[in-house]
Recover the amino acids of this structure.
């Protein structure tokens, strides 16, 4: 995380937030639709002893029309922490090649979370990044993300620098 602000006041500066491992099993229904089931484990305690690690189950549908540079993704997530949090996510993304091995990506994502013991939360995220696709079945990414957390009740702004390593096991 690069910076976090709430009510116009800076709460924290640069800090490592987490490391996560993901696994997705994809079912390609046709050229434009991919259905996926994913598992995620997020390591947070190693960076902040006050945080707790987290496990997620993710159901996803991704629609990428053939003649479009835009794609749509809908996700349902169950986040297992001290309480179980259910989240609905919708992402609209734009991707464009910058050459033979670099891609530019821009996206916006809306999130809505509900849990038994807390009030619902809404978030909005905006991100830009580049991906290196020059290696077979391996992608390296670098991005910047701005988040408006819990904007319906107590707005907080968060800025992230993200790095990504994706290995495709075909």
């Amino acid at each position: 995380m690069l910076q976090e602000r709430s009510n116009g006041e800076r709460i924290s500066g640069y800090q490592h937030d987490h490391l996560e491992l993901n696994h997705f099993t994809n079912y390609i229904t046709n050229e434009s639709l991919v259905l996926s089931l994913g598992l995620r484990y997020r390591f947070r305690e190693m960076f902040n002893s006050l945080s707790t690690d987290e496990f997620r189950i993710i159901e996803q549908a991704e629609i990428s029309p053939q003649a479009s540079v835009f794609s749509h993704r809908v996700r349902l997530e169950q986040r297992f922490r001290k309480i179980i949090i259910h989240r609905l996510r919708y992402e609209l993304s734009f991707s464009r090649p910058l050459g033979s091995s670099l891609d530019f990506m821009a996206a916006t994502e809306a999130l809505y979370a509900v849990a038994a013991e807390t009030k619902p939360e809404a978030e909005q995220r905006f991100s830009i990044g580049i991906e290196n696709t020059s290696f077979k079945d391996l992608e390296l990414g670098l991005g910047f993300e701005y988040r408006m957390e819990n904007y319906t009740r107590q707005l907080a702004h968060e800025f992230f620098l993200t790095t990504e390593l994706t290995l495709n096991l075909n």
Observations:
- Residues 3-167 form a domain with the Porin fold (CATH 2.40.160).
